[in-house]
Design goal:
With 203 residues, the chain is of the alpha/beta class. It is built from 7 helices and 10 strands. It starts with a strand and ends with a helix.
Amino acid sequence: MKPLIKICGINQLKILNELVLYDQINFLGFIFYEKSPRNVSFELLQEVKSFDFKNKRPVCVYVDADRSYIEETSSYFEDPILQFHGNESNEFCNSFEKDFWKVFRINNNINFDKISHYPDASGILFENYERGKPGGTGVPFDWNLLNSVKDLDIKMILSGGINSENVDNAIDIKPWCLDINSGVESSPGVKSLDLVKEILNKI
């Protein structure tokens, strides 16, 4: 079975207008983290309020953001998923009464105990660990480590450096969803529709 597809780090309306036309894409991700080159501008947020996402679901991405900021920015979207990259607790993530994904950054092992602390997560996202970066490293981790979590009752989302050259290996892990970001960029924060088409064709 093919994995679902998320394209993350959208920060331009013209790119959003194109991506929403691709049937293969299931989720569109928006990053609300000022240190990221993919941070959503206030201008784009205004445009999103009346945007027709068709059959795609928006995902709002946060890193240890405060409650009011999360409530304010996510309110521009209809039925968004919240994605948490920081040290947020299960209780905090679940308190917004929206579906949420919790991110785990993988270095050289997987902490099963930490995963069990998020029973309410509707998806668990695995990303490469890089010191000082909460995500968006553009580098894959050892995906074979995920073989140990396949028996867990979770929806596994694979992220980190997925591009057209390694996407076949990513699919072999059999994730529920692939989270694609820097692998379809011409430079940090700049999406390339040609690279998006290339990776979708391979999938």
